[in-house]
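$ ./design --mode recover --in tokens.txt
reading tokens...
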């Protein structure tokens, strides 16, 4: 905990590739709310007794006596990576990881990261790398297909026809954030009441509200309303110029209004005006629906490194 509070911020500050998921406030909040069977763990690489890279982890003692290692804040976090990432430092981390516990689970690695490439080389696990969709801001509508532009125009006309009945807001205080999270939680429960959970579906049984209360400075929720009632809500983390979408929920009773698309329109416009340069939409599955949703705003994807023959650790 002391390492995360005192040493981690400097490492993260020097790492230009660090994301909001490596923010010390985010990691400390999740560390404070680990279940009783878990403890935070930092694996650090030293040069001349000084930390040059570190990976935040959690160690869990299972009922069968086995120890399980996962990234700290997993599965809530995406884009798992160390701070101070370099080829040499990551090589040290990769060599040390297997010895930390009986089961070491390192998933949701950004496909372009050194850790993903080296982990794939050692373990040959295709699930260790994840494609993430990113929307460059401002959205270049002219670069979208003609059919996508028509859909944008149709949705905007639908929203304009409702006039002042439609509203949009983005939280800016802790009080607003927590109130908006309660609304998002309600939307999420209603939307998923009759759906079969998918492997990557967000788990709102995790201590989200407690965590957000501690890191409200780097989190916000954007909400679309109809007659002052929430239609859709989107929880994001943020750095100075980039936002990261974590959870999106929509009212199933108003599916005809495409509230998720409408909210994304408003959010992209809002973030562009506020000076953001990108909106990360999170991990992308093989779902055609998700890829179509991402493509409607010109999302781009990183390219996974070429497969390497697996080696045993």
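writing sequence...
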């Amino acid at each position: 905990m002391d390492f995360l509070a005192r040493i981690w911020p400097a490492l993260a500050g020097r790492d230009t590739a660090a994301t909001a998921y490596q923010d010390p406030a985010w990691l400390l909040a999740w560390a404070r709310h680990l279940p009783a069977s878990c403890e935070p763990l930092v694996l650090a690489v030293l040069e001349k007794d000084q930390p040059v890279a570190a990976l935040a982890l959690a160690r869990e003692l299972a009922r069968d006596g086995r120890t399980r290692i996962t990234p700290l804040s997993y599965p809530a976090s995406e884009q798992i990576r160390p701070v101070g990432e370099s080829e040499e430092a990551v090589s040290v981390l990769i060599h040390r990881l297997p010895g930390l516990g009986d089961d070491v689970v390192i998933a949701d690695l950004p496909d372009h990261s050194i850790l993903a490439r080296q982990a794939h080389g050692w373990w040959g696990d295709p699930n260790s790398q994840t494609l993430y969709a990113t929307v460059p801001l401002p959205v270049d509508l002219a670069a979208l297909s003609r059919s996508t532009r028509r859909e944008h125009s149709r949705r905007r006309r639908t929203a304009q026809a409702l006039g002042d009945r439609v509203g949009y807001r983005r939280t800016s205080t802790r009080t607003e954030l927590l109130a908006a999270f309660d609304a998002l939680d309600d939307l999420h429960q209603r939307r998923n009441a009759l759906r079969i959970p998918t492997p990557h579906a967000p788990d709102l049984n995790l201590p989200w509200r407690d965590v957000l209360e501690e890191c409200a400075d780097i989190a916000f929720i954007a909400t679309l309303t109809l007659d002052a009632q929430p239609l859709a809500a989107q929880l994001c983390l943020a750095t100075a110029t980039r936002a990261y979408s974590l959870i999106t929920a929509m009212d199933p009773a108003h599916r005809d209004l495409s509230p998720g698309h409408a909210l994304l329109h408003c959010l992209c416009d809002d973030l562009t005006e506020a000076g953001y340069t990108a909106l990360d939409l999170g991990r992308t599955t093989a779902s055609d629906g998700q890829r179509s949703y991402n493509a409607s705003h010109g999302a781009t994807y990183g390219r996974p490194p070429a497969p390497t023959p697996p080696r045993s650790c």
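exit 0
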